[in-house]
Amino acid sequence: MEPVHIIGAGLAGSEAAWQITRRGVPVVLHEMRPAVETFAHKSGDFAEMVCSNSFRSDDDVMNAVGQLHWEMRAAGGLIMEMAGRHRLPAGGALAVDREAFSAAVTQMLRAEPLVTIAPGEITQLPDTGNWIVATGPLTSDALAHAIRGVTGTEALAFFDAIAPIVHAETIDMSVAWEQSRYDKGETLAEQKAYINCPMTKDEYEGFIDALLAAEKTEFHEGETAGYFDGCLPIEVMAERGRETLRHGPMKPVGLTNAHKPQDKPYAVVQLRRDNALGTLYNIVGFQTKMKYGAQTQVFRMIPGLQNASFARLGGIHRNSFLNSPTLLDDRMRLRPRPNLRFAGQVTGVEGYVESAAMGLLAGRMAAAQALRRDLPPPPFTTAMGALVNHITGGAEAKTFQPMNVNFGLFPPLPEMRSGRRGRKDRYPAYTQRAKDDFSAWLATQ
């Protein structure tokens, strides 16, 4: 049997490889790292999580992301299985020890007899064979050039920023305290999964002034800053209005200062545990394009972080993605070259879970093709189906931008009234319908 070739062993490529081998089809997994590096990756392991260690909400009743988790688990997803094994307390979110998680995914794939690892960079798109391109947002320049040559159009691009990581022992816990927002979580560890740093109004105003005045990273010639709104650098948010951060990542709601319960913080900076040892914490929502020296000065203005030591400072990089509504069919094949499927963030989905989910689908579809079958996508009443429907035709091509999974992508429920007051009933109805329909889709395979 001819193998399926996968370019890229990130979250999407790793999940695709796993799904294909579960169906008895061999895989050749091409990965350029560590021989060819990117500025954002730190290792040669597969499924490395670059920007954050969180897969976001794990609530599969009231949250579309949690429903996507459920579907990936139901489909025997490797990414969700390894995330579960290396889970860290994070309130209602699914956060992982990123190094242990990546190492585990790598070990599972290297130990799989049907997987052949092929080191080295792929610089051209093949004309024949069964291929999945899962190179992610940091697709190499050579391969990006080859993709543009095949598609006849420029890939779109936006800028994505990396949040800084702090050594836990340098956080002043006489100022900060441990608490998840609204004490969310079933265990004490979950309810205390975040470290919170409070700010008074004066401290917040001074922080905003410093943030706006800080020296920023310059863009290269010819690049434009078309940010994805779900991952804006904090200084870009601050430029949109002085109160923007206080209603975004620095919102003080659902938190009570353990040291001063009677004092309501004007703003709160949250840090989330980044490894199993609890020695590293990332600053939640603090993606930034400030220069390194400025980052250290500005972030040490945060109460509790005045003596902070940083394991990693923030950064910024260019992400590329296809105009998928015009280029991909509903089997995720490139219309000009149907021997090529695309998967992951390069297709215009945003987020770790969404990227891995597109890898899962592409893998199953490629395996079906290898077995001389056809696999349609899941119904778009499901989280996975809603995403693939959006990127392969549901979105407006002229304004196409990266998209997280959300209930706005699901077809409406006629029996459920709209409006905010209807969410309590509407969201569980969405997720129950999705579970039923996804289970039925799995049963056909």
UniProtKB/TrEMBL annotation:
Gene, per the UniProt record:
trmFO
Q: HAMAP family from the entry?
A: TrmFO (MF_01037)
Which positions in this protein are listed as binding FAD?
Answer: 8-13
Q: Which cofactor does it need?
A: FAD
Q: What are the EC numbers?
A: 2.1.1.74
Q: What class of enzyme is it?
A: transferase
Q: What is this protein's name?
A: Methylenetetrahydrofolate--tRNA-(uracil-5-)-methyltransferase TrmFO
Among the GO biological process terms of this entry, one is: tRNA wobble uridine modification
A Gene Ontology cellular-component term: cytosol
Q: Which domain of life is it from?
A: Bacteria
- Catalyzed chemical reaction(s): uridine(54) in tRNA + (6R)-5,10-methylene-5,6,7,8-tetrahydrofolate + NADPH + H(+) = 5-methyluridine(54) in tRNA + (6S)-5,6,7,8-tetrahydrofolate + NADP(+); uridine(54) in tRNA + (6R)-5,10-methylene-5,6,7,8-tetrahydrofolate + NADH + H(+) = 5-methyluridine(54) in tRNA + (6S)-5,6,7,8-tetrahydrofolate + NAD(+)
